[in-house]
C-alpha cells in the first residue's frame, strides 16, 4: 500500500530499546509517522539526542517524522505528605512550602518540597492544589 493512501498515522515511543541495534532507523523505515518521547523518563540530554537522531534519519530516508513530547502531568509528590505527623489548616492560615527542607520534613506550619523551582514559578495568590 502506498504511503499516500494510508489514512492513519503510526506513532512509536522512543526509549532505550530504540537507541541500539539501529532500531530507530528500522522503525522510521517501517513507516513511523510520529515518534513519542515520554518526558517522565530520561534526561533532557537523552531526549535531545533522540530528537537529533530522528531528524538525521528522517532526512537520510527522505521522510517527514513528527516528534511528540509527552509531558508529565501533576504529581502528588510535588507536595509530599509529612513523614511523621498529620496536620490540617483552616482557610486563611499561613502554610509554607519550603524548598530548603527535605521532602516530607516539616510540621503544621511548613513542609519540605522536592520541586526546588516552585518559589520562582508562583506568586502569592496562586492556587497550587484544589
Walk me through this protein's architecture.
The structure is a single chain. The chain has 130 residues and is of the alpha/beta class. It folds into 2 domains: 8-70; 79-120, no CATH class. The chain is built from 3 helices and 5 strands; from the N terminus they run E-H-E-H-E-E-E-H. It has helices spanning 23-29, 44-61, 118-121, and strands at 11-13, 34-38, 66-70, 96-98, 110-112. The protein has a 3-stranded parallel sheet, with helices on one face. A two-stranded parallel ribbon has the order 4-5. The radius of gyration is 22 Å and the shape is elongated. The mean pLDDT is 82. Residues 6-128 form the Pyruvate kinase barrel domain.
Tell me briefly what this model is:
GO terms for molecular function: ATP binding; kinase activity; magnesium ion binding; potassium ion binding; pyruvate kinase activity. By secondary structure, the protein is of the alpha/beta class. It contains 3 helices and 5 strands.
Layout of strands and helices, then pairs:
Elements: E1 11-13, H1 23-29, E2 34-38, H2 44-61, E3 66-70, E4 96-98, E5 110-112, H3 118-121
Parallel strand pairs: 1-2, 2-3, 4-5
Tally of domains: 2
Structural class, judged by helices and strands?
Answer: alpha/beta
Helix content: 10-25%
Q: How many angstroms does the end-to-end distance come to?
A: 51 Å
Overall geometry comes to elongated
Q: How can the largest sheet be summarized?
A: 3 strands, parallel
Radius of gyration: 22 Å
The whole-number mean of residue pLDDT values reads: 82
Number of helices: 3
Spans of at least 5 consecutive residues whose pLDDT stays below 50 are none
Strand order of the largest sheet: 1-2-3
Which H/E pattern describes the elements?
Answer: EHEHEEEH
Amino acid at each position: 500500500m502506498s504511503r499516500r493512501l494510508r489514512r492513519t498515522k503510526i506513532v512509536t515511543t522512543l526509549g532505550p530499546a530504540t537507541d541500539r541495534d539501529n532500531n530507530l532507523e528500522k522503525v522510521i523505515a517501517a513507516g513511523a509517522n510520529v515518534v513519542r518521547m515520554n518526558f517522565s523518563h530520561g534526561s533532557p540530554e537523552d531526549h535531545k539526542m533522540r530528537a537529533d537522531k530522528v531528524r538525521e534519519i528522517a532526512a537520510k530516508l527522505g521522510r517527514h517524522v513528527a516528534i511528540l513530547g509527552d509531558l508529565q502531568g501533576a504529581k502528588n509528590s510535588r507536595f509530599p505528605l509529612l513523614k511523621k505527623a498529620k496536620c490540617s489548616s483552616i482557610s486563611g492560615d499561613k502554610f509554607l512550602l519550603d524548598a530548603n527542607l527535605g521532602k516530607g520534613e516539616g510540621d503544621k506550619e511548613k513542609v519540605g518540597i522536592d520541586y526546588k523551582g516552585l518559589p520562582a514559578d508562583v506568586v502569592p495568590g496562586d492556587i497550587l492544589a484544589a
